[in-house]
Amino acid sequence: MAKNMAMGQPPLDQLMEKMDSRYSLVVVAAKRARAITDKAEKGDDGNEETAKPVTFALNEIVKGGIKFRRTKQGIK
User: Fold this and answer.
1) How many CA atoms lie within 13 A of 22 on its CB side?
2) Over its length of 76 residues, how does the chain's per-residue pLDDT go in tens digits?
3) DSSP character for 64?
4) Sign for the pseudo-dihedral over CA of 27, 32, 36, 41
5) Maximal CA-CA distance, the chain
6) For the chain, what is the mean pLDDT?
7) pLDDT digits (tens, 9 = 90+) for 32-48
8) Rounded to whole angstroms, how far apart are CA atoms 13 and 35?
9) Cα–chain-centroid distance for residue 60?
């Protein structure tokens, strides 16, 4: 187990294999973390309770569970 995984965060090199830039990584992770937080506030509880929203979003990115596309207006 890598040192970063012990701290609950996936390593940056694994994250960057799934993203085209650090900027995209930050934007996608922040949007997904906000969606997780909003879902939890509405009472739709799930696995999100076991980890902080950003950690959960980063783990989803590493597993390939989040898709994104770059548009002229930003990341969708």
Assistant:
1) 3
2) 444 444 568 999 999 999 989 999 999 999 999 999 999 888 765 554 567 999 999 999 999 988 888 777 776 6
3) T
4) positive
5) 39
6) 81
7) 999 999 998 887 655 54
8) 24
9) 5
- Say how far apart CA 8 and CA 21 lie, in whole Å: 22
- The residue whose two tokens read 């898709």 is 67
Q: Which residue type sits at 14?
A: Q
Partners of residue 70 on adjacent β-strands: 75
Residue 2: per-residue pLDDT: 46
End-to-end CA distance of the chain: 33
Of 3, 4, 25, give the one whose Cα is nearest residue 75: 25
Residue 48: what are its φ and ψ, rounded to 5°?
Answer: -60, -20
Calpha distance 13→41 (Å, rounded): 32
